[in-house]
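Dear support,

I submitted the protein below through the web form. The confirmation email said the job was done, but the results page showed an empty box. After a refresh the structure appeared. I'm attaching both so you can tell me whether what I see now is the final result or a partial one.
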Amino acid sequence: MSVIDLDAERDRRQAEAWARYATAREKADRTLAFADGMAAQQAYREFIDLCMTPAQQAFVRGTVTPIGRRA
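What the results page shows now:
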């Protein structure tokens, strides 16, 4: 039975997502094409999602009401 280092796996996934963002951002900066900018934005969002807790993701997406506020 093998053991998976969850911290290392998380770090690997974050590093891969960052590399995808960096590549997309460089392309967008080079071409200045709207579609390339949107691709870079999506890649950044995927990176950020890996860095946030599910509760933080829900708050950013507006799918939860903050404590103390009524819907």
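Response: this is the final, complete result; the empty box was a page-load delay. Residues 20-57 form one domain.
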